[in-house]
Amino acid sequence: MTVINDNISRRRFLSSAFMAIGVGLGVGTLFTRFGQFLIPAPKPKRFEEILIARETDIPAKTPLPIEIGGNKALLLRTDDGLVAFSIKCTDLGCLVSWDSSREEFVCPCHQGVYDKNGKNISGPPPRPLDRYDVVKKGEMVYVKVAV
Amino acid sequence: MVVKLKEWASERIPLRLSLIDYIQEPVPDHLNKFWYAMGATPLILFLLLATTGILMTFYYVPTPEGAYESVRNITYGVYLGWFIRGVHKISVNLMIFTLLLHMIRVFITRGYRKPGELKWLIGALVLFTTLGLAFTGYSLAYDQISYWGSVVVTNMVGQMPVIGKPLVLLLRGGEEVTGLTLLRLYDLHTKLLPLVIVGLIAAHILIIRVVGFAKVEGGGGEHSFYPDHALKTTAIAIGLLIIIVNLVAIFPPAIGQPANPQEVASNVAPPWYFSAIYKWITIVPREAGLFGVMLFFALLTVYPFLDTFFSDRGIKMGRVNIVTGTIAVAGFAALTLWQVVG
Asked: What is the pTM of this model?
């Protein structure tokens, strides 16, 4: 390799280093701002209670399919009381369905299985099914949805 | 007349216009063997993809409401639309396949050795960008298979250590899949990634021109790029076109049910080039599996430097490459078959 100039003065080195740091910071800031532009900041969530059903109308052992905020969910009586489960599998986002004979939620993509309390019991899912908050007002059942 | 025109142009654009001189550089004789002339194949396919892709952008509508109908229109309504989309679809599969073949050849013959390390490194980036292009394009069809295939792949990306989360946010334009997501996939597919890949391909070719082709042991003799090698490449291009036209006729493009985010497709599966990774992460613990995939790609990218490191310590990398290459190819093929067939 040909060395063109290995005798750089201190002044030259310092000015080059100063410029390099300046360019680095400038480009870094620019790309951070680009990143912020491209990834929208999460909006503050506001929750709304949506009326789902009268409690006495909810079957004992089969989940009630409901649709909240454009997403499907299953309302089920569990050991923790009434729970609205998101049917989005916590593994890769496929949709689970209820297997009434086994009383389990099953995901068709990778055979992920959740028990009736939504706990992941076999297959790849890393965590239990997500839940929506359920609120009871008298006989009426409401589900909290982010809007 | 032509001479006058040439003079007129060269006075205004004072570049050397006689391209022929420029491309008459000698290339080594081993490039006559088909196996060594594979590098141009993905390039030819890329040109086909760019042409057919640009044509389709005149009809495609990148919104969740309009995407499916516009693809349907391209496939069944527009004159020769089925053929354009068919060529695009077949070409992307062939491009990935031939890129893999080209990489395997370079790997086995160790064509990436000094001074060719950057050729390999940029080539690896070309492969990753092509996979990115293939995935974003796959998602645009917006039928059930494409929609759910892209859901599982984006979630798979999201689970990757360190880079997963920001990458998914960037891809989706937020936490959830929205109309912005499709627009982003479309933008990536038709603007950003094509720009990147054109730059990478240009750099790859530039380095080949500056550094020259890799030397092959026992090889000797040279012939000129034009017309000898150009003729060979043209023959390959014509052969490819014949294969593609036939494949499009045998497997014309189709479109399934419209994407329904509320109803999971009965047979969710990613395209074949992701099948091996998809199968791999379902048979090993998820995080370890994804870490393994990232490590594999990282090692693949810097392999020329690993080769030098081990060769300097007396390890015969020629043999190592044959063994590791065979294991990698057999593993990829087995996992892909397992996912696709089983």
From this structure: 0.88
